[in-house]
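Quick question, first post here. What does this chain look like in 3D?
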Amino acid sequence: MLDADKQVVHLYGNAKVKYGEISLESSYIRLDWDKNEVYAIGQYDSTAHKMAGLPVFTQGADKYDSDEIRYNFKTKRAAIKGIVTQQGEGFVQGKTVKKDEEDNLYIRNAIYTTCNLSHPHFHIKASKIKVVGKKEIISGPFHFELNDIPLPIGLPFGFFPYSQPKEAGKSGILIPTYGEEPSGRGFYLREGGYYWAASEHIGIRFTGQIYSKGGWGLGANSQYNKRYRYAGSFNVAFNRNSNGDEFNPTKRTDFALQWSHTPRSLGNSSFSASVNIASNSYNQYNNFNTQQYLSNTIGSSVQYTKNVGQIFRSSISLRINQNTTTRIFDAGTEFSLGLNQFQPFKRKSAVGDRFMDQFRLGLDFSGGISMTNQIADPYTRYEFDVYPRETNSQRGIIQKPFIPTNADDLPPGVVAVNASTIPMLWEKAQTKFNYSLPISLPNIKLNRYINITPGISWSGNMYTRSYKYTYMKSDSTVRIDTVGGLPKFNSQISFSASMNTRVFGTARFKKGRLEALRHTMVPSISVSYMPDYSDPAYGYFQDVRINNRKFINAQGVEQVGDIRRLSTFDPRILSYGGASGAISFGIQNTLEAKLKTKSDTATKQNEKISLIDNFGINGSYNLLAKEYPLSNIGFNANSRVKEFDINIGGSIDPYSYVKDAAFFDMGRRTNEYMFGKGEGLGRLQSFNLSIGRRFAPSAAKKPKTSEMGSDAQLKQINRNMDDYVDWNVPWTFSFSYQFSYNRMGLADPQKISGLTFQGDVSISEKWKFSVSSGYDFKYSGLTYTNMSVHRDLHCWEMNFNWTPIASPFFGRASNYSFDLRVKSSLLQDLKISRRRSFYDKGGF
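> Answer (accepted):
Ran it through. Tokens below.
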């Protein structure tokens, strides 16, 4: 309706006014051209008994829901009643609002919340709030309300910075987790601190922890990402732990440093890093991640590669490995230079390949220096006693797992790594260089189905130290002396030829769903020859007497003392002499089935399933060996049947063993085959079996998508779904069974058998229960067990974690934690919650 005299326009129904970047929608709008003013208000719906068509004011990317609004186009000021607007990830509501020309909002009787409901579950309530542009929210005295219940939590003023959405997220306070370690450091608050969104490429978490018995810790974690360039994370932690015991106080300092850097493949060079350095007791006492708590190995590597064209390649790397159980540490740096195989006789303008064009030549040169804190091995597998004799008390005994009673225990032969031992360890470091010259000869085809590939390889090594062996008659031991001086070299040349083909077989069936079985067999055989480089004349091995045993040798002459041929460069390497003329053989098999579909209306008439993904047998026979010409026979198989992942592997020793006191429980290996003595095909030396499967509804396989998250955030979530509780999936369950068998000669076999499982189930729409545990069949005890209850509170999430069992080695220890925190809008949209796992072993 138009009032021309007063220059006023009245709009009713679904009214809409647009002026530049400003848009206004309401059931009633009044335009006053004389005052340059627009006024909007909703209308009462007598049927629904509520106001309807309330004004919605939009200016650019900002949207304001209100009960009533008055806006001046000339001054760009507004008066609003009953406003609801989103600022960043938060929502501001107020009864009366004034808006100035700089887009600042002055709100009375206001609340601020991150809950996106019209009646939020929680909020901060203040008499006055000012929204300053798109930068921050400033409030006067405020208090906190949960479900409309005022809580005694407040401050005289508040400052809430926010920014527009960016990939790094938002800066803010991290609420700590509450819990207790009854047998450890007592009550605690941990993982509290501050998250700083430094830029759209990097974010940093500064966290701390404090314990009631005096322990504390500090940490920083950063993740960075540069699209199409690189991504990575950096973490550093320092903990000072105390058991709080009045009579026997114990303090411990632990640290950890992790750095992961993954480049995108651009250009001819790349730099990557995976650094993980920690004190030996850090994972056991300070790590909150279940897998890292159970792991006893820590490895680090940094690598740089550079390629020049299609021919030259180079790399340099640094590695550090440590075992927190055995306390063995080794570090080293390596480099490699190489020429990719090229065809030296091929002409540039040649149309086809001549026979000689198929010759290929390459070059590889590598080296490095390695250092370890294991300076002796009392469980060494040497076939002789080392001088002096008292150091051989454990020789021949099957080594049992080293179980430290405290974090400072060291196994025999291992020294601590500190400033006083570094010079000694550096002196014992080994430097080694390797080179090889692979030559590929032309490939030969027989009857189009058989491929024959001959080859020649020339390789060698350079060492900075060697060893000299002397038999000591006084106590019948072998003295090992380290020899320094000029570098020592060894080189060797070998010849080889390999042959392979592929054979197919199909069996067809006329009855039932099974239409056909298809068997694919890939047999291979190769022949290699290498001269006898173990001959002492070359200088690479030494013939050494190792004992004073009297016996009749193969020539029928009485001999005193066994002779062993030991490597000049490594006492652990023995050779029984002779040139190598080996025939290696192997066969790989796959088995597939073709089935008719169950439904006549299916789009496909049949389906293929794999019964055996791979089943292989391999071994070798040395035609020139004087002893033990046949190698161990290895076998492996894997398959996926009904989504069960099955893996099998092992090896069989074909030689017979006899009891001999000089070889302890293992016995002495003879040169006679077991099948020749009627003892069977061979002795099972090793065997391993693993079976696992994950059960879940089909919804669990769908990737998570949302318009509220960046690509980097969604990729991070989809790659690590095990770290989240998925409320869209009602249940999941997965298990893995592992069995391993190892036997050395006649000694008793060592068996390890264990079952691990984890799962979760939705008790109701908002409650979920999770559990992870396992059973060690060898020690007849439960392994690490964790139970948790999750509650989805829409904009909040609650977690209760309880770990009743840590390890059968340490007995039962209990730990619990309680976590209540605000959930991000992205996780609300995806209907998932962050899963948090904690270790249960106390600090001491």
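The chain has five helices and 58 strands.
The helical segments are 282-286, 290-294, 422-427, 711-719, 825-830.
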